[in-house]
Input
Amino acid sequence: MELCSFLTLDSFITDPLTHGFMRKALLMSSLVAAVCGFLSSYLTLKGWALMGDAVSHSVMPGVVVAYALGLPFSLGAFIFGVGSVALIGFIKQKSRVKEDTVIGLVFTGFFALGIVLVSKIKSNIDLHSILFGSPLGISLSDVKQTIFISLLVVILLSIFRKDLLLYCFDPRHAKTVGINVFFLHYLLLTCLSLAAVVGLQSVGIILVVAMLITPGATAYLLTDEFDNMTIISVLSAIISSLIGIYISFWFDLETGGSIVLAQTFIFLFAFLFAPRYGIFKLKKFFAGYK
Amino acid sequence: MESINYQNFRIDAENICVDYNGKVALYDANLRLKPGQICGLVGMNGAGKTTFFNALTGFVNISKGKIRINGESVRSAQKDQTIAYVPQSEGIDSQFPINVWDVVMMGRYGSMNIFRCPRESDIQAVKDAIERVDLNDHLSTPIGNLSGGQRKRTFLARAIAQRASILLLDEPFSGVDIRTEKLISELFIQFKNEGKTILLSTHDMIHVREFCDLVLLINKTVVAYGDTSEVFTPENITTTFGGISPDFLFGPES
Output
């Protein structure tokens, strides 16, 4: 560790930028974080944290199968992500088992299938990078896929952002005025699957759910306006990614874990010090001085 | 222009049944309402009031029977913005990060383009609606910072902005202040004069006597339906509430 070399903040930031893989990692992780952060404001308001966890774990067999067949891994992940949600809906409707049980049951089943497949297929799949992410080792084809999917999700969310907000807020009203709620439901699920696919490159399957809920939760503590919430969510996600990658570079830590930890710390900071909704209610505190 | 008989009904529900995964929530329910009528929907919790609303708005599918809204299907009523639904307070996440203006604007979404860009007419409709519920001072207040009554008025404004001819209100008087209660009852009279049809569910028997021309007593199916003065009798109410005496519900003085 060249700890003495970051005596200045300047070199702390610029030194890693001399490495091509670091520039790529910083850029791609920021992009992924922005996409997940954008979606995260909808997911936290809709109460889909568990659903996010389910979808992100369920993509595992899809990734493995796609690698084995030489297909784009996003395709396999997407099919299994949406498939898991369809299966959850089906089992919930046809049985008396409660929804959270069904969700837990289905995604662990898919995840286990993925792990078994990895051990059986024995190709050059790097289990570690799927589970924990490898933002520093993203290949060129992964970069193209990530940019394509990210743009797709951002475009979809931008076009339907008002409808999705209404869907999260009051689906009954949406239905009453003739808005296609069924479509919006699956649109949000599709975006969730796609975001999980790009997110897992940064932080891996196990932690990608953090990318999908923590930034939104942080932003929710800081504002009462949805547009601001989206902006804060995206910014906090990007900043966490940058902090996580730098920290992991200088201290030789697991990158995915560092990114998520950075998000968690930002959330805790908001939890304690958010002006209105934080534990210390700073707004009231300072108002008392006036 | 003379239209055939059933088109004179704003709401015409005939023998409707709703079940959730085989569990019957409502069966053989009938309701006919004309323009300018106010009807109270009275029943216990779980008697099927919300299910009835859900069937009329198309939020759940009916398994049997027929619903005509202005003589047309529920689907085309949705397209035409015919029905507005005012949710009960518990049906809404009051901490949702959205302000009064944006909630009321959602009443216009159904008639906007796909990007939901407000036109001049939409902005005017929202302004007027907010004016009518007396929330001008709270245009950009997040709904989480409103009182229960103000929040209720916000959703009423959304229904007004929608320019619907039928209003479904789930417990409009629960958890509201006196001022809001007075404002809502004034609005009801205005709506009636405008020819709107109102169906409201309530626990409060006094309100039924006060506003409702008609009353629909339900307990999984229609127990009694008709003019309030004829149908809203202690016997019928007792039947509706599974044998509990109306004294208990009204207080001893009724």
